[in-house]
Design a protein that fits this description.
The complex is a heterotetramer, with 2 copies of chain A (210 residues) and 2 copies of chain C (230 residues).
Chain A lengths: L1 H5 L7 E4 L18 E4 L3 E5 L20 E8 L2 H9 L5 E4 L3 E3 L4 E2 L14 H7 L3 E4 L11 E2 L14 E3 L3 E6 L2 E7 L5 H6 L5 E2 L9
Parallel strand pairs in A: 1-2, 1-5, 5-8, 6-9, 8-10, 12-13
Antiparallel strand pairs in A: 2-3, 3-4, 6-7, 10-11, 11-12
Chain C lengths: L9 H5 L7 E4 L9 H10 L4 E4 L11 H5 L3 E6 L6 H8 L4 E4 L2 H12 L4 E4 L13 E4 L2 E7 L3 E12 L4 E2 L8 H4 L3 E12 L18 E4 L13
Parallel strand pairs in C: 1-2, 1-8, 2-3, 3-4, 8-10, 10-11
Antiparallel strand pairs in C: 5-7, 6-7, 8-9
Classes of the chains: A alpha/beta (210), C alpha/beta (230).
Amino acid sequence: MVARAAGEIAPGLVVNLGIGLPTRVVDHLSSDFPVCLHSENGLAGIGPSVPFEAADRNLIDAGGSYVSTIPGSAFFDSSTSFALVRSGRLDLTMLGAFEVAETGDLANWKIPGKFSPGVGGGIELAQKALRVVVLSTHTDRQGNPKLVKTCTLPLTARGCVNRIITDMAVIDVTPQGFALRELADGVGVREVEEATGAPLTVPDGDIPVY
Amino acid sequence: MVARAAGEIAPGLVVNLGIGLPTRVVDHLSSDFPVCLHSENGLAGIGPSVPFEAADRNLIDAGGSYVSTIPGSAFFDSSTSFALVRSGRLDLTMLGAFEVAETGDLANWKIPGKFSPGVGGGIELAQKALRVVVLSTHTDRQGNPKLVKTCTLPLTARGCVNRIITDMAVIDVTPQGFALRELADGVGVREVEEATGAPLTVPDGDIPVY
Amino acid sequence: MRLPDKTTRLEEAVAHIRDGATIMVGGFGVPGTPFTLIRELVRQGQTGLTVIKNDANEQDMGIDHLLVSGQVRKLISTHIGLNRRAIELLNAGRIEVEFCAQGILAERIHAGGAGLKAIVTDIGLATELTAGKPRVEIDGEAAVIETALRADVALVHADRSDVFGNLGYAAVARNFNPMMAMAADRVIAEAETVLPLGGLAPDAVHTPGPFVDHVVGLEALSEEYQVVRR
Amino acid sequence: MRLPDKTTRLEEAVAHIRDGATIMVGGFGVPGTPFTLIRELVRQGQTGLTVIKNDANEQDMGIDHLLVSGQVRKLISTHIGLNRRAIELLNAGRIEVEFCAQGILAERIHAGGAGLKAIVTDIGLATELTAGKPRVEIDGEAAVIETALRADVALVHADRSDVFGNLGYAAVARNFNPMMAMAADRVIAEAETVLPLGGLAPDAVHTPGPFVDHVVGLEALSEEYQVVRR
């Protein structure tokens, strides 16, 4: 699933990988792959993670991991960092989700009743990245579908999600709703349909497996 | 008059000297005087002017004169430059004027019927500098007063002028209107009153001469 | 012309903060947080503060000390999830927290520093963060007016400063510091190195000196500044 | 991970400009004006352009060539007083000029680059420059809504660039270039020196590479770039 997500990153893009699962996508890119990774705390051109012993106290990513620079990296302030996000210079972001609606609505920051510690930069990433890929388990811990007709949780942004990559399938958000694109190895169409809380368009013929 | 204007610059201020007469005020400051001169094209800490032969093609002031830096100078973009002006960090500006009203209204950028080439940074300097001193001849070329009850020309900013220094007098704008503070050497009170287009409060006793 | 010297003793600089003041505090996590200025503010004990800061640091670090000491009335922030104590204080009703989208917080502070009244954006229109804020239409599209933020005092951390207050930041320790250093009536910068005039190249300055009122040189960096083992 | 190379031939980069495009052009007087990109645009001859630039340069310099060639429909500027020809063309009705206060032009471009819809300010309320613009009250005070500015293409001049498009500006040649380099769908930077990746220190970058699409190295600097004798 994480390896499959790495396939979303075309050469030359500017990409922000959200905290959690998405961060691990970088492990599946070759060191020579042409991509500019962005961190919202003020860095373009993130290099490999650095162990505690070798860390620079002034060089973390937005998730608090110690990282490094690569030739051509640039530091900038938080205003510039989100200018990049909001003005169409962020080609792709990968985010986690509580719920994704068939309209592409995303809820990933607050569960009413539970305390929410704030949204950070999540709204802007979801609302303004040119392409939003959700990387998530297909269902929550109780087995309830995360892909739904309508979000019941407070929204992060409306109509923002383009694709969902889960442990079961790759599904696109289309004007006609969810469309199955690929299946995880060993997962059947029927299983995906049962784990999905909204209608799923299934293509004719063979479905690629990842 | 220009020498008298230099007396307005208290130690430690951040000062913008407008194009024309005000620019020459700097010639009356000692090289050791503690002041930060600001140029709206992106320089704080303007050093002495530089002759053509020694000029740096990338180092002009907003009036197009070749200038130099001093230890501690900083370059910045136009956004930052006017942030300084509008956010209360510019202690003093000296500007020219077509008309100053007894309310402190300033008109110094456009004469209807004649073409105006645009206001540049003049509105922001006039409206937002903490103190605005007008440096001007007391009357225009036709002998008409520049200090008036109400401006007839398009305004630059309302109620912005604190003091006017002319070839005849130093006059403050007060809640009661114009108030005479000082006289130029050889000029009498009556002469100033006649050359001023609004009532002038004249102090009792001796009036300082410059 | 010569530029004035703004170096100030720590105690004297922080003493300018009054009870009830609104203060901005730089930093995103550890990098760029002015730990020394915060510690002095805890020592001096001013109360009823409104604090504007990206995050609430972690427990026993940075502004957490101000929360524990009860000096903070209200926090304007984007995310406090790394500080369990801040969450407890919020849940107990002992502090008020106003959340803002991170980049919009940055732009509201930029607008304050730029002497603007507000910005207009479509960010967060689908969320409760913009509920109750005035709406306006721009080119036929809905948008929300987010007012500019200014503070009485800004506390920022610089890697280097000259005595006039020209500042340079290290790596991602820059974050909110440059905007905050423009958006307060009084700006206090702590600096790891204080250089003489001319020690910073004019085109390497991140925050120009005219925005800064006090430069406090740091003699040593406490444990809080160091690499955090997680 | 490796950052891509954006070096582009002059002709190819400028060919992305279409008839009727809105273009931003950096510079304040001579410093920071991308004279070489402008000359190439004159050579290619795209027409019906809206040009956003602080000033109109001087006669026979910079965007004056675009005015003379009739390629400009509209100019958004702060001051054109140093270019008598621009004034004549305006008076003859051959170009439309929209004036804006200088710092507000900078902030409108900043807002465009920041993906905002507009800024709200009290600047120019007493002047005709804000006539007809929507008003709004902020904290009981009158203000005007100034919409964000974006362009199809921005032409900027840098002192130095690496091949990824991280830019550094010289002295006051910075001026409007950094904001414009963030506010266009396509950003073309000409650079006096093009460095390999790693040639610019990460904290010495004035415009981060992700905002820049094309880097055009300058082989020689024409007479227009030099010190002007007045």
